[in-house]
Amino acid sequence: MERSTVDYAELRGSGPVSIEKDYQRFRQIVKGKIRGDLRKFLTRGELLGKEGKHLISIPVRGVDLPHFRFGDNNDGGVGTGEAGVGDNVDGQGDGKGAGGTNPGAHIMEVEVSLDELADILAEELQLPRIEPRGKHVITSKKERYSGLRQSGPESLRHFKRTFKHALRRQIMSGTYNPDSPRIVPIRRDRRYRSWKTVLKPQSNAVLLYMMDVSGSMGDEQKELVRLEAFWIDAWLRRNYEGIDSRYIVHDVRAQEVDRDTFYRLREDGGTKISSAFKLAKHLLDQHYQPDEWNIYLFHFSDGDNSSETDSRECCRILREQLLPQINMFGYCQVASAYGSGNFINVIHEHLDDCDNVITSRVNNKDDIYDSLKTFFTKGK
Description:
The chain is of the alpha/beta class and 380 residues long. It contains eleven helices and ten strands.
């Protein structure tokens, strides 16, 4: 008869269970630190280009695992000297003397996934989960644990069920001693998780980004667009299984480009915003049926357009051709010393009654936080 050397009573308060609780507690502390500095993390340009399950190193101050320090309490330590409490520190000195012997407080780098950052963003901004529209016509295969079996890899052993079967067997056989309980599972007691492949409905979304690249949009304005679009992308990918991103740039003419070109291209010319909306309509008609896709349009500009007539034409295209088919049109106006900034006023004048039109202003990086909340607070 095969016997296991594992004693459940001994495992109950030991290593793996205790370590897992400590680890989860540590992760909660880390998330709290990140949440406190969220505005700063939103403006970190080095995150651009990462998506999905990528792990991101985040520097976090003041997080340390508890531990004992042994030594004489009378020994000198950090901050000891002749000065008294409340004395001013003038920062003067010749820099000479022996090096310190005590460790300083270092910044710890922790790894979190972009999905975790998106969740922290949602919790802090109190963003509701997005309610997809359209039909769920595309499915993906998922492995789902659906039951138990008596054979399988040890990594899938169900510890509680194994213990229960061992306890039941010993009680029935009369070998269980309640005064000295010792449960030893044998081979036939072991239970393993089983799984089956299921088809899961998958919500798809297309993000169509449009940006003015005329002469009035400089490097500073494009950096704001890069950061805003990155976090828009991160939040929507957290809500949808499948995301297709398309990019349009325009001055007086519009063209579709790849992601890298979208963020780096700079033209020197006038602006005709309606050209981008017409190309967006063409792409949607060709590739994305509204009953199968959740469609999000975002336009970034400094608000300068060639004429009031073209601005009104943009509003007509939106109202008659685009808004009936899409989840949301988001217009983000970035501050520029060269743009008139009037396009946002035209949108408010002509489309103020459309609840899937949302606008925001971003004058600097600190405004990105509030802009994201403006776009997604309704959970569209």
